[in-house]
Every structure is written in structure tokens, then in C-alpha cells.
Amino acid sequence: MSDLLKVHLKKAGLYTSVQDKGRFGVQDQGIPFGGALDKHSMCTANSLVGNLSDNPVLEMTMVGAQMTFEGTGQIAITGGDMQPMLNGVSVDSYCTIHITSGDELVFQHAVSGCRTYLAIGGTWQTTQWLGSFSAVSNLMSSDKLPSILQDGDSFHVSPPELGEIKTYPISKRPIFSSCYIIRVVTGPEFGIFKLPDIEAFFQQIFIIDTASNRMGYRLKGQLPNYSPVREEMSSGIVIGTVQITNAGQPIILMADAQTTGGYPRIANVLTDDLDILAQMQPGNELKFMLVSLEG
User: Fold this and answer.
1) Mean pLDDT, to the nearest integer, of 256-272?
2) For the purposes of burial, counting CB atoms within 10 Å of the CB of 20, is it exposed (0-12), middle (13-18) or buried (19 or more)?
3) Cβ-based neighbours of 140, under 8 Å, separated by 6 or more
4) Of 13, 20, 274, 286, which has fewest CB within 10 angstroms of its CB?
5) What is the separation of C-alpha 194 from the centre of its chain, rounded to a whole number of angstroms?
6) Dihedral (CA of 205, 208, 211, 217) sign
7) Rounded CA gap, 227 and 200, in Å?
8) Is the dihedral of CA 60, 146, 157, 153 positive or negative?
9) 107-33-42 Cα angle (round to 5)
10) Within its chain, how far is the Cα of 2 from the centroid?
């Protein structure tokens, strides 16, 4: 199939962007990792349309996009449930869907989960920078950089021949909740925290704040009577680093976070649990659990 498939966003939704696995090897230049927050959902969507796992996808947050298609191709939807409708009829997630010219796909508010992923079979004709198609949300805006999608934006995909219809097993699909236990390992500055602070960190139930975004999740709740032991030098961080602010509040750094930070790093979220965090909405609750990487 040689014709390009055009995707036109009538409405971009609350926060919709192109994402892949992110940028690597440039963090020493202050450039964030980026990439899809829920990588399992991204890879699953791509597999359903015959793409490589690191092919770009659309990541939609809380409120989805409304789009039309010109051309023929295949799509797949995974992650949070934004009640997708194709030409006014509800469609299933986690399966291959054929689309043709004139089709309209509408997503609504997430009724479960936080982020929905849309894969489109083929080669995406979107902006690439430093080896990644992922939007750069916290650097200076430029036409030469991938950016957050806006109402009226369009892009093209070069689709392959239509493949077989695939369905992801129901038993393997995520079930979203409003309360999670998030597994962590000790962070580089874990040893400087006083025992009462450590106990409070693991015993308390924290709430995702509305100020949370792709840069970081701010948590409501704080370590009682916390005071910094010492002034910290700015140090490197990775996705999932948990810092404690001077006010005793935890912040979980996410994919678009700065590459260095000065708050002490009490813990790091396990990679497998980052996908869980990506689907947590403001107001959801979490509790940290310390685990060991040994064995």
C-alpha cells in the first residue's frame, strides 16, 4: 500500500503527544529521557498493528483526542479506558481495528487509568530529534523539535499491507485501581534519613496531587517534623527517583523530569511499577513498599 494515511486532530485533548521509548545517551546535556510513561501499553499497541515495539504512538492523558483519517490502515488502542468511539460506535481496546477514509475516532474522559495509547500501523512521518520521536515538553519550543499536539494538527503514516486481526488476551490486560502499593529500592541518600522519617515514608498513604504531570508526580502528605539533615549538591536522577522536598513532601520524577536534582533521593521506583504509576490519576492513593533486588 503506497498511499499515505493522514491523521487529522480535530481536537487534541488535554495533553496528547507522540511518544516512543525515549532518548538515551544525551542526559549529560540536560535533555530528559522522555518517552511513553506506560511502556507496556505502548509496546502492546504496536504489536497489535505489526509495528516494532519502539514505533511511535499517540499518548493521551485524562481526556482524549478527536481525529479523522484519510486513507486506509490499522490502529490499536491500549492503556486507560477513554471510551473510544469509531463513527459513533463504541470500539474495543486491545485489538486490531481497520480504518478507512472518512472514519472519525473520538476519545472521551478516562473512566479508568490515566493514559491511553493509540498505535497506527506503518512508518510515522513525524518530527524526530536525537534518535526519538518523543515530544519535548520542557525545553524551548521549536518547529524543529517534537512538541505537544494541538487542535488542528495533522501528520502522515506510511502504512503497510493490512495485516491479520489480533486480540490481546483478556487475562493479560491491566485492571486499574485507585490505590496501589508501589515497590521501591533504597535511593542514594537513603542512609541520611532519620528512622522516624523512614518509618513515615513507608507507613503513610500518599495521594497523587493535581499538580502531577510527565515531569513528576507530587504527592499530598509529608513526613512529620521533617528537616533536611544537610544541604545536597545537585545529583543525577533517573525515571522513578523519589525525592523529598525541604517541606518533607515526596516527588516521584517521571520521564520528562530534569536530569539532575538537589533534593535527597530516598528511593527509586522499580521499573515494572513505573507503568502502574503512569496510569494513576490525581486523587489516587499509593503506599511505598521497600523491596530488595537481590535474588
Assistant:
1) 91
2) buried
3) none
4) 274
5) 33
6) positive
7) 13
8) positive
9) 35
10) 32
- The single-letter code of the amino acid at 225 is N
Partners of 18 in the β-ladder: 58
The pLDDT assigned to 1 comes to 43
C-alpha cell of residue 263: 533534593
CA distance 59 to 35: 10
Helix crossing, 39-48 with 271-278: angle to 10°?
80
pLDDT surpasses 60 at 24: yes
List 69's β-bridge partners, or say none.
7
* pLDDT of 12 above 60: yes
Buried b (16+ CB within 10 A) or exposed e, 48-61: bbbbeebbbbbbbb
Measured CA distances, 158 to 5, 47, 76, 283 (Å): 6, 17, 16, 40
pLDDT of residue 114 exceeding 50, the answer is yes
**Residues near 195 by Cβ (< 8 Å), separated by ≥ 6?**
none
Rg (alpha carbons) of the chain, rounded to whole number: 20
For 154, the enclosing helix (H) or strand (E) is: strand 154-158
Instruction: For the chain, give the number of residues.
Output: 295
Chain position carrying cell 507496556: 40
* 285/230 Cα distance (integer angstroms): 30
Phi, psi of 236 (to 5 degrees): -65, 145
What is the average pLDDT value for the chain, to the nearest integer? 93
The letter for the amino acid at 70 is E
Q: With a threshold of 0.85, does the pTM exceed it?
A: yes
